[in-house]
Design brief:
By secondary structure, the protein is mostly helical. The protein is 75% helix and 2% strand. It has helices at residues 2-15, 19-48, 52-69, 77-94, 101-118, 131-154, 161-182; strands at 129-130, 188-189. It has a two-stranded parallel sheet with strand order 1-2. The longest helix has 30 residues, at 19-48.
């Protein structure tokens, strides 16, 4: 830890970074370490189960949405990993439940609306977003959800259509749960 702190001090001095910029760098490094290890472990588990393509589709779908919309965050790696594993397993388990088309369209529309209204919900240890960035993340995440909703609703022969639908529905539920948990906290900077 002392070596890491000395390294951060050296980088900050050498490149004249502010404390806030160093906080962003530190956060980014910690996110990469955690996320990369989760992806490797879950990818291996899904490959072992013979459903790695489903994992890849879900991951490629969720990472951009989650990056901009946020969601539930945990303080410890083990609880974060358990939640992530469950979050990726549920769409696969629910895949065989096909809701009526009008209900699916309604849920997709609700998903887009909730993403716009509730998102982004950032992690407590993440450096605060400036208001412009907060608005930008909100629009990007809503746009991604709308794009996936269109693909899910209108792609005729998309083999992963239903697991993608369930992933969007679960991400929406996650945002609904995460927003009140952060209520009252000032985590975005306003202009």
């Amino acid at each position: 830890m002392a070596t890491q702190s000395a390294l951060y001090q050296k980088i900050q001095t050498a490149y004249d970074f502010t404390d806030f910029e160093m906080q962003k760098i530190n956060y980014t490094i910690s996110v990469f370490k955690c996320e990369f290890s989760k992806i490797i472990i879950l990818g291996a588990a899904f490959a072992f189960l013979g459903i790695f393509p489903k994992f890849m589709v879900l991951m490629l779908m969720l990472i951009p949405i989650r990056r901009y919309s946020g969601g539930i965050h945990f303080r410890h790696y083990s609880s974060c990993f358990a939640f992530t594993a469950l979050f990726f397993a549920l769409p696969v388990l629910l895949e065989h439940i096909v809701l009526p088309y009008p209900l699916r369209l309604a849920i997709l529309a609700i998903s887009a609306a909730v993403t716009y209204i509730a998102g982004p919900v950032t992690a407590p240890n993440r450096p605060p977003l400036e208001y412009k960035m907060y608005q930008r993340f909100r629009l990007i995440s809503t746009g991604l959800v709308l794009a996936w909703s269109i693909i899910i609703a209108f792609a005729g022969a998309f083999p992963y259509q239903n697991i993608c639908f369930w992933m969007l529905a679960l991400q929406t539920i996650q945002l609904i749960c995460a927003k009140p948990a952060r209520k009252g906290e000032i985590y975005e900077k306003t202009e």
